[in-house]
C-alpha cells in the first residue's frame, strides 16, 4: 500500500496486526468513581495500580482566543484560566481573580480546544521503529486471550508518543490487536513522557476489553487450520468464552457474598470476561461490516452486557439507527477504505450520517501518523457531511475528538470538554483547528505545559531519539 | 493521445481565479478548451457562441493534480491478492516488467480519486531491487491505451532495508548487484550480436531486463530510486554519477539532511510530506523534509503513496505548506514539477494553450478541507462527480435503504 516507506499507514487495520476493542456499558456517571476496574475484580489485591501524579505547574491564563468548548459554544475573544490541573473559568468575562503567578499566553488569532482523545491507538504496543522486537500488540497464540493486558506490553519510550503529543492528544486508549476474537485488556493513559506505564495510567479509568469481528481472527487461525476459520466460527468462539465467564462470575459473586469455603480457583482469562459481564470493563469491539455489528449486538443481549463502541465501523452508517438505539458508539475514520474486503464500503460521510441518526460518533486514528492530525480527520468528515447536505456543526465535529471519545472511555465527567472543574487538558492552536494550515502551539495535560512549538524545553523526546534522530530544527 | 474524446467540443470555464502554475494567477479569467486541449487562457479570451459554458465565478481553477506514486489501477483491495498486479515475485531485477497491462480501467478507485481533483497518477511497480517500469496515466478512459500518458515514464529501483537481500543481505551487496546489472546492460548493449551467438560471459540479469535498461543508461528514461536512509540516498547519487543516469529520488526520508548535495546533482525528489514515523530505514524522517529540500534548491514533487486515498494528495500539499513550503511551491509540486520530472511538461502540468485539458474547478483553495470540487475535466471531458462511494451514500442516506 505504501511503496516508498517502511511503515504502512494502514498496517494495523489491514494486516490485522493491530486490532480494536469494544466496550461494555456503564452509565457515564460511573466515571466520577475513581475506583479502578481492576481493583473491583474477583481478587482483592492491588493490580498494577496507577502511579500517575499531577505535575505541579503554575496557573495559566490564555487571553483573547476563540474558545471551542465542545459543549455547544465557540466563544470569540475569550480567556481561559487553568490552575492546579483544573479549568477554573473561561469566557469573555472570567469573573474570577487572576492569580499573581499566572503565566499569561496571548491567544489573539488563536483557538483553544479540549485535549484530543484517541480511543484506538497502538502506540507503545506497536512502537517505532517498527521491528519484530517491538511488535507486542497481538497475542496470536489462542483466539481468546482475555487474560493479556496491553499495559504489560506498553513501551513508554516509543518515539511515536512525543509526535502524538505534538498533535494535541492528551489521552489514549492503547489496545491489543485484532488478530484474536478477544484480544485482551486495553490501557487508558495520560499521554505524557514517563518512565513507566503505571505513571501514565489514567487514575480511575475502567479497562476496555478488545474484541474483534470479521476477517482478522478467522484469517489468523484459519490459515493454521485452527478454530475459528469462518465468521460463524467467530461467533461460536465468543459465545463459548462468555458461557464459561458466566459460570465463573456466578461462582465468584456467590463466594464474595458469603465467603463460604475456599475461594474458587482464579482464572485470569475468565476474570476479565466476568468483569465485562458485570459492566466494569467496557467492551471495545473492532467490527467493520454492518451485518456483523448487528450480530454482535445480539451476542451482547444473549449474555447481558453492552458493547460500548464499535471501532473502525466503516459500515456503521448502514445501521446508524440500530447503533443509536443500542447506545453503542461508532468509532470511525474519516476516509479509510478498501485495504481489505470488509473495508470496501467506507465512505467520507460515515461520521456525518451517524451523527444525523443520533448515534454517538468518535473519530480514531489506529495509526501513529493519523493520531498526529485527528483535527484534520474531523475536518474532512465534517465538511464531507456538509457537502452532502447533512448539517454538522463545528461543535459536533469537535466532540468527535473530545467529548464523545471521553464517553467511550467512561471519562466524560472528567475530560473532553472545556468547563470549570474539568481536568485542564487544553490545546492552543495557531488558528481554526479545521484548517489544513493550522498547527498546535501548546498542549496542556492536567494543567502541565507538555508541548510548546516555540520552546524546545517543552518538546519532549523519547530516549530512543537521543543521539539517533536529529533534534527539531537541528542538524546531526 | 486524445483517443477518449469522441466529440469535437468547445468548453469555456469563465470568471474564475485561474492558477496556470506556469505564470501568475489571473482574476476573472477564462480557460477555453477545444477538442481536449487548452486553446486559450486569459482575461481577454473571446468565447465562441457554441461553447459549453462553465461558470467559475468565485471559484479557483487549476490544472488537474498529479500524484507521482501509488498503484492506481493495479490494486483494488489491498488484502485480496487476486486484485493486485503491481509486482512480479521472485525477480529482484525486473527491468522488463512494465505495469501497463496490469492496469484495470474499471477500478472503482479511479472515479473515487478523480472526483477529488487528482487527474493523473504514476502507476508504480512494487517489490525488487529493480522493480520495473512505471507508467503515467490519466484517470479516465475505457482502455489502458486510452489512459496512458507515458509508458514507460520511469524505471524504478529501490535501495533500502527492503532490497538488501538482493545483495546477499548487505546494502553494499545490493549496490554492487545494481552496478553489475548496469555494467552488464552496457555490455549487452554493445555486444548484442555476441549475446545472440552465446559468445559472452553469463550476465547479471536476463536479456529482456538488460535491454529495458538501455534508455536508462542513455539518460533518456529517468531512474526513480526509492531510498530513505541518508547513506542509501548518497549511494544512489554515487551510482547515478558513475553511470550518468537521470536520477529521481523517491521517499527520501532523510534527504533534507543533504539538500545541497542533491541540488548540486540536479536530482529531483518525490517526497511524501506527512511521513515522520522513524524506522531504522529513516530515523531522521520529518515533516519539514519537503520545505527544507525546496529551500535548498531541489525540485520536488509531492506524493500521496496510499493508492486508495490518493485523493489526500491535497492534504499532503496543505501540510507541506504548514511545515514551510510556500503555497505556490506546493501547487507547482503537485502539477508542473511532476510533469517535468516524468518528462511530460510539454503536455501536462499547467494551464497553457496546447496542453492537455486536465482542469479542476474548486470552490476555494484546493488544499483546504472546506473546499469542494465543482468540476473536473480530463482531456477536455467533464467527469461526472459520481463514484461507488457516492452511490453508497445515496443508498443509505435515509434508513432503511431501498434495495
List the helices and strands and how they pair.
The complex is a heterodimer of chains A (476) and B (403).
Chain A: H1 11-15, E1 21-22, E2 60-68, E3 74-83, E4 86-91, E5 103-106, E6 111-114, E7 116-121, H2 160-166, E8 169-174, E9 182-185, E10 187-190, E11 208-212, H3 215-222, H4 231-258, H5 268-278, E12 282-287, H6 290-303, E13 307-312, H7 320-326, E14 329-332, H8 350-356, E15 361-363, H9 374-387, H10 394-399, H11 403-408, E16 426-429, E17 440-445, E18 448-452
Parallel strand pairs in A: 2-5, 2-6, 7-8, 11-12, 12-13, 13-14, 14-15
Antiparallel strand pairs in A: 1-12, 2-3, 3-4, 6-16, 8-10, 9-11, 16-17, 17-18
Helix pairs in contact in A: 4-5, 4-6, 8-9
Chain B: E1 10-18, E2 26-34, E3 37-42, E4 52-55, E5 60-63, E6 65-67, H1 109-114, E7 118-123, E8 130-138, H2 144-147, E9 148-158, H3 171-190, H4 192-196, H5 207-212, H6 214-217, E10 223-227, H7 230-243, E11 247-251, H8 259-264, E12 269-271, H9 289-295, E13 300-302, H10 313-322, H11 327-332, H12 336-341, E14 359-362, E15 373-378, E16 381-382, H13 388-396
Parallel strand pairs in B: 1-4, 1-5, 6-7, 9-10, 10-11, 11-12, 12-13
Antiparallel strand pairs in B: 1-2, 2-3, 5-14, 7-8, 8-9, 14-15, 15-16
Helix pairs in contact in B: 3-7
Largest interface: A-B, 64 and 62 residues
| Range of helix content of chain B | 25-40%
Identify the overall geometry of chain A.
globular
As a whole number of angstroms, the C-alpha radius of gyration of chain A is 22 Å
What's the total count of β strands of chain A?
18
**Which structural class should the secondary elements of chain A be placed in?**
alpha/beta
The helix tally of chain A amounts to 11
Q: Could you say which overall geometry of chain B the principal axes of the C-alpha atoms support? A: globular
SS content category of chain B: alpha/beta
- Quaternary: heterodimer
Helix tally of chain B equals: 13
Helix percentage of chain A: 10-25%
Low-confidence segments of chain A: 1-40
Mean pLDDT of chain B: 96
Radius of gyration of chain B using CA atoms only: 22 Å
SSE pattern of chain A, N- to C-terminal? HEEEEEEEHEEEEHHHEHEHEHEHHHEEE
Share in β-strands of chain B: 15-25%
